[in-house]
Amino acid sequence: MTVLAMASRDAPKAAVEPPAASLRGVTRHYRFPGGGKTLHALGPIDLDLRQGEFFSVVGPSGCGKSTLLDVLAGLNPPSEGTASFEGKPIAGVPDGIGVVFQEDASFPWLTVEANVAFGLKRAGIGQAEIERRVDYAVGFMGLRDFRQSYPAQLSGGMRQRVCIARTLVLQPRLILLDEPFGALDQQTRLIMGDELLRLWRETRATVLLITHSLDEAAMLADRVGVMSARPGLFIDVIETGWSKDRDSRIVADPRFGEMTGRIWEKLRAETMKHMQTQGAGPR
Amino acid sequence: MRYRGLVTLAVVLSCVLALELACALGWVARTVIIPPSAMVASLSDILWSGEFNRAIALTLTNVMISVVISISAGFVLGVAIHACDFLRRAVEPYLASYYAVPTFIFYPVFIVLFGVNSAAIIAIAVLLSIVAMITATMNGLDRIPGVLLRTARIMRLSPVKTALMIQLPAAAPYFFTGARLSVAYSFIGVIASEFILSGDGLGYAIAYAYNNFENRQMYGLMLLIVIAVTLVNMTLDRLDRRLQSRLRR
After folding, report:
1. Any domain includes A188
2. How much is the pTM?
3. B15 and B117, same structural domain?
4. How many domains in chain A?
5. Over the stretch B147-204, which tens digit does the pLDDT of each residue have?
6. pLDDT tops 50 at residue A283
7. Which domain covers residue B12, as residue numbers?
8. Are residues A127 and A214 in the same domain?
9. Kind plus residue range of the DSSP H or E element containing A156
C-alpha cells in the first residue's frame, strides 16, 4: 500500500462542486460586559470547505479558532458577513452538523451505549435502526467491551471516543472537531488521529479540525489553514497533497517534516506576536 | 470498603460495651446513664406496648411534611434564584450566612402565627432545612459543565428537553446532597421543636420523661430516635454514593 502516494484529487473537479460550507467576510466582535468596548476576535474570514475534504485549522492560542467553529456550528452568529452550510445560510444549529468538543462531553449518568444512542432517540429513529447504528459506532470506536460501562469508569481517551461515536451515529455531513484530542497524550493522539482518518474515509463527511498540534494538522488534513494572532485571519492555506488512505505512519515521510516546517514558519511570527500582546513568555 | 465498615462497627460496639461495663461496675450512676442493655429493653417495651405509637407517627408525619415542603420549595426557589442574576447577587450573602442564625429563636413568632400545633413545628423545621436545599440546587446548576449545554444545543434540544434530559441528571447528585441535608435538618427541627414547644410527639415524650425522672423511658426513646435517624441516613448515604461515583472523573 502506498500510504504516501500523492493525492490524485483533481482541483478543477473540486472547484465545480458546490462547497459543503462557506464563510464570506465573517467577523466576530465581542462586547465587554458593562462597557461599550468591543473585542475584535475574528475575521474577516473567507473560507470554502470542499465537499468531503479534511480541513485543519492551526493558529496561536486566542486567535479565534473556536469562535470560527461556533459560527460554523450555528452556536454563535457572525457579527458581519454570511455563513452557509450546503448553500443555506446558517441560522441556529443546522441539521447535518456534528461537533466534538475538547472537553469531555460524555453524559456521566448514562452508559456508553445510552450515550451513543442519545441523539438517535431524540431524532425519532426506530429502535432496530438505533441498535444497528450504535452497534456499528461502538465497534468502530473500539468500545464494544465497555457498552454497559459509565464514563467515570473509562479513561479520557475512551470518553472522547464515546463522544465521537455519539456524533458519528447521527451521520453528520459536516463534522467539526474543536481540539478533540487536546487532553490526551501524544501516542493516544496519533492513534486517535488514525481512527479519525478511518472515520472520515468511511463516512465521506467533510471534516474541520481545530488543533494546536502542527503534527496533527499536517498528518490529518487535505488542507491546513494557518490563522494569525487575534483578530484571527487565514494567513495561508496549505495543500498537503496526501493520499486519501494515509495514516499516522506518514510522520516518517521526509515531506511530513517539510510540511510541518512550512506551517511552523507561518505560525512562528504569529505566535510570538500573541505572546507579546499577552506579555507571556514561552511555556 | 467492607473492611472499613467492620472497623466502624467495631468502634461503635466497643463504646457500647465500655458503657455497659462502666454501668455494671458502678462507675456511672444509674441516675445518670442506664446501661445500653437496659436501653434496648426499654426500647422493646416502648415498641411492644404501643404506648408511644401515636407520638412516633406524629413525629414521623411532621418530619415527612417538612422534608417534602423544604425539598420541593427549596428546589423551586434554588432554580428561580439561579435563573435571576440580580436576585442572586442580592440573596447570596444571606444564604451563605443563614446557618449562623439560631432558627429556634423564631418559635414565638410561629406560635403566634400558627398556634401550639404541628404547623408551628413544621414551619421551624422547614425554616431550618429549606436553605440547605436552595444552596445545593444552586450549586448543582452552577456545576453543570458548559460543554454539556453546548452539546444539547448541537443536538437541537428544546429548553424544556435540555432541562429534563441534561441539566436535571447532570445536577442530580448535588440536588440529592441537598435533599439529604434537608432530611437531617427536618428531623432536628421537628424533634427539637417538640421538645420545647409541643404537647405531643417524640421530642415532647423525651422532655416529659426527663422532667419526671423516667430515665429508663427517656433513654429508650432516645435510642429509638438514634436508630431511626441512622437507618434513614445510611439509606440516603448509599444512594448518594452511587450517584456521586458516576460523577467522579
Report:
1. no
2. 0.80
3. no
4. 2
5. 999 999 999 999 999 999 999 999 998 999 999 999 999 999 999 999 887 778 999 9
6. no
7. 1-33
8. no
9. helix A156-168
